[in-house]
Amino acid sequence: MKNYFKIILGVGLFLSFAQTSFAETTMSEEGQYIFNSLAFYIGGVLVAFMAAGFCMLESGLVTTKSVSTIGAKNIGKFAIASLVFFLFGYNLAYGVPEGGWIGSFTVWSDGSEIGTGYSDSSDWFFQAMFVCATVSIVSGAVAERIKIWPFFAFAVVMAGFIYPISMGWQWGGGWLSSAGFSDFAGSTLVHACGGAAALAGVIVLGAREGRFGRKGEPKSMVPFAASSIPLVTLGTFLLWFGWFGFNGFSQLAMGTFDDVNAISKIAVNTHLAGASGVVVGAIISRLHGGKTDIIMMLNGALAGLVAITAEPLTPTPILAIVIGGFGSIIMYYGTKYLERLHLDDVVGAIPVHMFAGIFGTLVVPISNPDTSFGTQLIGVISVVLFSFVLSLITFKVLKQTIGLRISKEAEKLGTDKAEIGVVAYSIRD
């Protein structure tokens, strides 16, 4: 009987101690380090899937005679961007002195310490995937008339210099961060930056042969029909799934109650913004064109996701829906505006990423009182101009030196035969 009493007493004391410990004890420093590093890894893997999304979307929107080229461009830029970000891009971004402008041209190295709260390697991996996404934005806009090796050369400049330097102004603790600029996951720092570079490329390259009629009207059907709408749809879904890593794990931590709640709220707002973009894209295309345009629905999803990326945490779900919907509206009219200017953006990268990204960044003060419209405007103008001007110079230098655009004969033949030597489909346009 005494033994039973001792057992019951021991169990009672243990349970009492356990309840007290769980109520009063937070996760250890090592535990937070593990979970924060895991967050970077999971987020990096999800963002890496966006590379597949961009590839599928771009492959589906070009004509059948350019699909193999798109595959080569996307796997090539994914590798090149990763390598140059390792060699000097990372430290250009994160070696910036507080309130400064540029970091150092040094190779990244792992200096992990438990006191930093996460593994350096996991952080590099996560950030490298963002670089790859930025270069992907440019790829789609200039498709079907750019030579593949000059594009790879541009990828080196974009991933190694343009993006890291401007990104460091905010996320590296540079002058925009000191000024109070806020861009949670990169509506401007990633998307508008990539969109501005895409705009420069489209201007320098010019439109595809025959893309616009004698009176300037766009020719959206044959011979410029999308090769595969299912591929475009698949690509959009992959990008949407990847966005949960892009936005959610930009919380940069998963080791506390607040961090996990923040990631969860970000997932809700991100998803609702994308969903709103789809519905608005469907409605507005129906009202204006009499047809429910699948491309506008898909790009509407992406525009909504881009718009919420600057601040996915502080808005209410209703506000997230509104932001995503307006992002889609901006994308739709932005697409029509570019067509009137005879600017040939094959995938709609400029209205989706640049226009919607600028909008999303400017409306951050509505839900985040820690910044202001003026500060957000300064940040947008600085990053967009920097990316556009340096990209414009780079494309023009490439044009004047090694050449940028394929010949008219090669364009008629198709980049698959002219540039790659591998035909994607046996049945041609």
The largest β sheet comes out as: none
Number of strands: 0
CATH topology: Ammonium transporter fold
Report the portion of residues in β strands.
under 5%
The level 1 CATH classification is Mainly Alpha
Summarize the structure.
This protein is mainly alpha-helical and 429 residues long. Helix content is 69%, strand content 0%.
Architecture overview:
- It is a single chain.
- 52% of the residues are buried.
- The protein has a single domain, classed as Ammonium transporter fold.
- With 429 residues, the protein is mainly α.
- Helices cover 69% and strands 0% of the residues.
Notable features of this structure?
single chain, 429 residues, Ammonium transporter fold
Q: Which helices and strands, and how do they pair?
A:
Elements: H1 2-24, H2 29-61, H3 67-94, H4 120-141, H5 148-168, H6 175-179, H7 187-205, H8 229-248, H9 257-289, H10 294-309, H11 317-340, H12 349-362, H13 373-400, H14 408-413, H15 415-420
Helix pairs in contact: 2-3, 2-4, 2-8, 3-4, 3-5, 4-5, 4-7, 5-7, 5-13, 7-12, 7-13, 8-9, 8-10, 9-10, 9-11, 10-11, 10-12, 11-12, 12-13
